[in-house]
Design a protein that fits this description.
Layout (H helix, E strand, L loop, with lengths): L4 E14 L5 E18 L3 E7 L4 E6 L5 E13 L15 E13 L4 E7 L5 H10 L3 H14 L14 H22 L5 E8 L8 E10 L4 E9 L12 E10 L6 E9 L12 E9 L6 H11 L21
Antiparallel strand pairs: 1-2, 2-3, 2-4, 3-5, 4-5, 5-6, 6-7, 8-9, 9-10, 10-11, 11-12, 12-13
Length: 326
């Protein structure tokens, strides 16, 4: 995909054919559950996007002529200071969670690309400000490439080209070194993926260092993702939450992964209007996911979870006209 690289996990019903002339044909629909998309642009951008579940790749014969439809995001933390009204800027020196979103569709080898920007944890004031800022494609792309190259927003009347070259090189170099260090450590073990994120600060925001680790244990039934780090405070930064301690744990209760337990601890976005705000939000719960063609099929699948293997309802796989679930 134009020099880019994608790797993913997923499932689907695929059919492979090789004829007498050794021509290879591929048919089927592949559904993505997780993955990474490496977006590159000459020597300026080399960013790893997280692929969201639900994307699809569909083949109709030619392996290189598939249709793609997926969404991914590049997460970063940066200050909203530069895009806020001047009267409010001093209240926005802390760093916020920002996603650069990307939508890839149509041809696999040369997809149409659409960008967007979202603030997953921010208050509505901040979300509306960003929405007003990216009112057209030119303004949106300007901020997207500023986030990808400089790791920050730029004022509305400023061009990204006018930014200090040393700042651009510093942001790019720090990310390259962080990625290389993470890849080197991860190469020593197959059980853990480890990454280092270093975000250089400036006169407004602080330096920030975090360690990201993910692992899958017990035959991929236990999934753990962590993001631990620290951001030193300065005189301008009013955010007291200098420690980062995000943990996300999932356990697959069923072998197919449809029934899961989920627990998490995540840092809250700093809210100026809520001085009694807790530093973290915790939660625990269970969820079940199942595709079905009728309520009878759904009931059959759900009851099978709690049955012994010898007593499972086999009618769930039969045609609708003959299916009977107890």
């Amino acid at each position: 995909m134009v020099g880019d690289l994608m790797k993913s996990r997923g499932n689907g019903d695929m059919r492979f054919f090789i004829d007498e002339t050794l021509d290879f044909n591929l048919f089927g629909n592949y559904q993505i559950t997780s993955g990474e998309y490496l977006f590159t642009l000459k020597d300026f951008i080399n960013k790893k996007f997280n692929v969201k579940p639900g994307g699809t790749i569909t083949w109709f014969g030619d392996p290189y002529n598939a249709k793609l439809d997926l969404n991914a995001y590049y997460p970063l933390k940066t200050s909203l200071y530069n895009i806020m009204p001047s009267i409010e800027r001093d209240n926005w020196t802390h760093k916020s969670n920002v996603h650069v979103d990307i939508h890839l569709q149509n041809d696999l080898m040369n997809p149409d690309i659409e960008f967007d920007i979202s603030l997953p944890k921010a208050e509505e004031t901040a979300k509306q400000t960003v929405k007003n800022l990216i009112y057209n494609e030119e303004a949106k792309n300007q901020q997207v490439f500023s986030l990808l190259i400089l790791n920050k927003f730029i004022p509305e009347n400023q061009n990204i080209i006018s930014e200090n070259t040393s700042r651009t090189n510093g942001a790019t170099t720090s990310e390259v070194l962080s990625n290389q260090l993470g890849n080197m450590i991860s190469s020593f073990t197959d059980e853990f993926e480890i990454g280092f994120n270093y975000s250089p600060g400036d006169s407004i925001s602080d330096d920030e260092l975090s360690i990201v680790m993910s692992t899958q244990q017990f035959n991929d039934r236990l999934l753990i993702n962590t993001n631990l780090g620290v951001a030193p405070s300065n005189a301008l930064n009013k955010d007291p939450n200098s420690f980062i301690g995000d943990v996300d744990v999932e356990y697959k209760l069923s072998r197919d992964g449809n029934l899961r337990l989920h627990a998490f601890n995540e840092s809250n976005e700093y809210d100026l209007s809520n001085q009694s705000q807790s530093r973290y939000t915790q939660g625990v719960g269970a969820y079940y996911k199942q595709s079905f063609n009728s309520f009878g099929e759904l009931f059959c699948e759900m009851t099978n979870i709690f049955r012994r293997k010898s007593n499972k309802c086999n009618q769930c796989d039969e045609p609708k006209s003959t299916r009977e679930c107890p």
